[in-house]
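Operator note (shift B, R.M.): manual run for DNA-binding transcriptional regulator, XRE-family HTH domain requested after the automated queue skipped it. Running by hand, logging everything below so the morning shift can see what happened. Input copied straight from the record, untouched. If output looks odd, do not overwrite the archive copy; leave it for review.
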Amino acid sequence: MAKERTYSRYTREAVTLLAKQIRLGRKQRRWTEHELADRAGISRATLQKIEKGDMGVAIGLVFEVAALVGVTLFDEERASLAMHITRTDDKLALLPGAVRNRGKPVDDEF
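Run finished. Output pasted below as returned.
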């Protein structure tokens, strides 16, 4: 039997907000579920899962549907998004490639 995944309240609320924004964007464009699903190359059932905030839908599909209906995920300007990616890459380059447990804690109480 598969163990059900639990999510933090923040994560559930963020997914719910994104799902509602996607639904709002679709309705503001006066697109049916079928029309948006066709544009995104997904089934209508998958779109319904996205609009309900189903956590099992691949994040790439959710982001693509959000982009199609005009939901801004990070920044309005695409150049700004590229700048953030570069900045994050620079920070990652400064950090160690792997993280390891430190093992036994050091007793430095003298």
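Quick read of the result: Residues 9 and 15 are 10 Å apart (CA to CA). The mean pLDDT is 88.
Leaving this for review. - R.M.
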